[in-house]
Amino acid sequence: MSVKGFLIRFMKFSSVSLIALLVVAAPPASAIEFISFGTGSPAGTYYFLGAGFASLINNHVPNVRVAAESTAASNENARLMIRGEMEMGLACMGTLNGIKEQGLDVDKIRLIAIGHTSDVHWIVRKESKIESIADFRGKVIGVGPAGSATLNVVSKKHLKNGWDLSFDDFSPKYISFSEVTRGLRDQTIDAGLIFAGSPLASVMELARDIPIRILDIKPDMLQGLRSQFSNVVPLTISAGTYNGIDQDIHTYCLPQMWICRTDLPEDLVYNIIKAVYDHPGDRDAIHPMAKMYTPENAFRGSPGVPVGYHPGAVRYYKEKGIWDHRSEHYE
């Protein structure tokens, strides 16, 4: 064999060996972490926020893919996390207390933050003879979907404790927000509850289609409710928020929780919350209620929640210097 031929064969052998060595030595590609983010009805604030947060996280956290899942909201989201079928999501304050009373292991869940509020909209057609919640007796009422805080907290607990109304007093319809607006249009329900952060696109659209009213809750009724539920917060929906609503509406809201499974890695949760909080321009563009997700708002009402904060969230709040001063932001 000529020297030239030997060199060619040696170079080929060396090249193949080097490629093989690189293949063996190359580190494996980082695995993608898939996260299911529980939201609510596509017509509600939960869904808009969850989808927006998912986009922010996907854009700013490497090797993570978050999918916003439309669900029956609070109770279903919490139960799916407890069963290990969902990683994180949104839930109304009071949800974990309720399912703990039912014997579920809420220690499998941790707080990430307290954020926006969900606002009580009891809606009727303008010509309806229903003037207050007390007039629900004998009527057909949209009370929210099964598994939601709309149903389990506002429609069941609040109607019972605030107005002495049980589901035996009227005909309840377990329907989503979009089905409530359809039911009011089609006159298949007399009143319906939409429990989400205002202004709501679905209510704005409904108010453009038909004349509506949002029931005003008198101060004495609200005070009675607050005496039993400390997380009830008075709210005024300003005149003009919705077409045809030409005076302020007095109602109430509840703070909402961003929660996750306890077993999620600390680094993962830290990077997720950092992606949302550290990009305020992108965050605030998601929905008017997204602006409420700030470190200063992250602790409101949290002493009443039966679980603590995830270590990844604690790490972020400590980094921002707010963790040791969180009691100043409980209200």
TrEMBL record:
Matches recorded under InterPro entries: TRAP_TAXI
Name this protein carries in UniProt: C4-dicarboxylate ABC transporter substrate-binding protein
UniProt keyword terms in alphabetical order: Signal
Leader sequence residues: 1-31
Species name: Desulfosarcina alkanivorans
Gene3D superfamilies attached to this UniProt entry: Periplasmic binding protein-like II
Record bears the keyword Signal: yes
Superkingdom assignment: Bacteria
